[in-house]
Sequence to fold (96 residues):
Amino acid sequence: MLFICEGRDAWYAKNLTPQRGKKFLLALLTVFLIAVMGVGRVTIIGVVEQYNIPLTSWTTSMYVLQSAMVLVYSTVFTVLLAIPLGIFFLGGSDKH
Fold:
């Protein structure tokens, strides 16, 4: 198990410290923020329009549940888009 961790740390040091690793992390942050804005807007507007409950009459548990749903969906979108972004930013420099 120690060898796996050492190999992983070496991979992180090799791929995430150069400029392309920073661009990858910035792209992930951008995707996450866009997902939070999009999912948050759709979720809140959906609840307000579907159930006719204005934000002023929401309970604390409604805020917590909607925030958790926005966080989960945004994380899923970010993880799904991390795969092609990782290939694009961290992939080899092979010219095919």
The mean pLDDT is 86.
